Amino acid sequence: MMLGYFLNHSDHEVLSSIHLSEKLGLPHPTVSKLAKHLCKKSLLSSVQGPLGGYKLSHLCLELSIGEIIEKVEGPIALTLCAQAKPNTCQSLHVCQISEHMKLINTVFRSALMAFPFKAFLASVPSQNMQPHLEELWKTLIPQDPKQEVHPL
């Protein structure tokens, strides 16, 4: 939300944490801590001085939503079995859906990696997106249950 707010301002506009807190309706300590964390991850740049604050880094504009999420949160994994770390799920030995969840995670992560952060500048089409999602699903999941599934 905070990074998205920066997209509506010029590249060189510096916004204070107090301004961000007021505009986003978030507590100032939360905004301040998050801004510092985003600076450490090179997504924001800090500007010192009486007119100081934060601005969006040029790196941030080149990243995908998935890359930003992974910079801030770490690897994208919807379930423990989809994480890169082996043996993180205690139920893996009895789980019937682990492989399906890994496929869903791959699809989800691929979509986030393909979605550029700059796309938040564009408005979302008002048309119903359901037909597009159904077509995507048909390409990922075979209609014949005996047919092999190919991850992205």
Task: Describe, in short, the structure shown.
It is built from seven helices and two strands.
- Number of discrete domains: 2
Unreliable sequence segments: none
Approximately how much helix is present in the residues? 40-55%
| Overall average residue pLDDT | 81
Radius of gyration: 20 Å
Overall form: globular
General description of the model:
- This protein has 152 residues and is mostly helical.
- It folds into 2 domains: 1-62, Winged helix-like DNA-binding domain superfamily/Winged helix DNA-binding domain (Arc Repressor Mutant, subunit A, Orthogonal Bundle); 64-127, no CATH class.
- It has 7 helices and 2 strands.
- It has helices at 2-7, 17-24, 28-40, 58-62, 65-73, 98-114, 130-140, and strands spanning 44-47, 53-56.
- A two-stranded antiparallel ribbon has the order 1-2.
- A hairpin with a 5-residue loop joins strand 1 and strand 2 (53-56).
- Helix 2 packs across helix 3.
- The longest helix has 17 residues, at 98-114.
- The relative contact order is 0.12.
Which secondary structure elements does this structure contain, and how are they paired or packed?
Elements: H1 2-7, H2 17-24, H3 28-40, E1 44-47, E2 53-56, H4 58-62, H5 65-73, H6 98-114, H7 130-140
Antiparallel strand pairs: 1-2
Helix pairs in contact: 2-3
Task: Throw out a few tags for this protein.
single chain; mainly alpha; 2 domains; 152 residues; two-stranded antiparallel ribbon; globular; Arc Repressor Mutant, subunit A
